[in-house]
Amino acid sequence: MRQNEQGFTLLEILAAIVILGFFSLAAGTFFTQSAMFANSVEEEVDRTNLNQAILYQVVERENTLALSQSCDLLPESNSFFDFLESDENGRFVEGNNERLYPSVTKCVPANVGRTIVTVGFYNQQNRLVSEMHELITR
User: Whole-model pTM?
Assistant: First the structure.
């Protein structure tokens, strides 16, 4: 009797399935990590853009902000905060499912001739998540 030797054996099929499973697991892990990294980079870019937007508003209105010649937090009455929503914790912007609360500090050190503006964003747990500085020459 002749045996039919065409096709694959059960052992060959199982080996192929195991090898394919390893490659699928590696690819799945890689794509999951890539997605998580892309999400964290997107959050950082969003925070940087928010910092730059508020810094731009502060720099544009720097001459109209009445503060002492030391370091002060800008009061929320300044008009550049008007576009932000507010809740019981103060003015905030919302992005990536979190609320970020800005803090703007203007510092005019004596005899330096420059104004240092610092914009920071705090999360709802009052933890600093992003900060940016700008030097303004008078």
Answer: 0.61
